[in-house]
Amino acid sequence: GGIQYTRAQFLNLSLQPPSKMGYGVADTGVDFDFISTKEAHALLKSDKALFVDGRDPADFKISKIQTSYNFPANAMMFKPESLDKTLVQRCKDLIAKGKLVICVSDAGIPGIQNRGHVSRCRHIAQYLHELGVERESIRRLQGGINRWKRSGLDGIIGDMRRYYAGAVMTADQGELFISDHLDEEDDGDEEGPPALADQAGLDHDSQRAVMEAVAQPSAEVQAALQAEAPRPRPVVVTSPTVYRVLRGEVYKKASPEAEKIIKLDWSVDRLVRTTGELFIGASGGKWAELDTGCGEKRGWVYVEGPGFGPSTRKVVSEYLQA
Known about the structure:
Distance between the termini: 22 Å
Order of helices and strands: HEHEHEEHHEHEHEEEHHHEEEEEEEEE
Number of helices: 10
């Protein structure tokens, strides 16, 4: 996500020379590879990714990729003291364990000569890189959270409508986002749309012609998009399918009726894949069913609740977080 522009403004900004990043760190010119929705979803389901969301907290509250961290790009510019400085070290630690850092925004707009200034995921990727996170371990989510919502894949919690800059997107706004014109079946191509391949050597008029061609799809492309059958999906998703371990201790039992509970020592930030099925125990504790299809062993894990044993006060402890 980011600032909303008209078509003319977007084209003009895309052809401007590079400048400094908005938070005062010089843009080194290093850009970051994109990762498709399908690939990112597969990494989420195999516990191989850490998602960092650059949208504002209000947008993050409306909807998010499950287990993601909120690291607002605007805070880097206006409230740097509010940022969670431990996230950089967490990224480095999880990269050492084989994970990728995936930066998320509303639409994941590719940068051409503007080097991604329109997209917040570009800002946070650059910020993390400047503070020591390896470029090779950072990806930008192609099409952003909006593309993920369109895909029909699980992994989103909250409002499934597409948003931009805090408001529900209109059909006209959708045309501004080049990444949304990519064929869903071609999501695996990390190099971006062919029309946006290397433009080195093109003069100003030729670059503008390329941008116009991409920003205004052909009649055939528009007809194909209009003919695409709508995919029914819930407006709001409230049952997570992936959680993140918060405390390093996880409680599990074989079934909702089972009395025996075992304690597991799982590392903080380990992802726990579940089916979305929930069970509320007699004391109010919330349990989630593990997803054996993603490699988890059969059973139910304790998400949150008052804990176990007698207590003189009502305390809700959170062990897993979506």
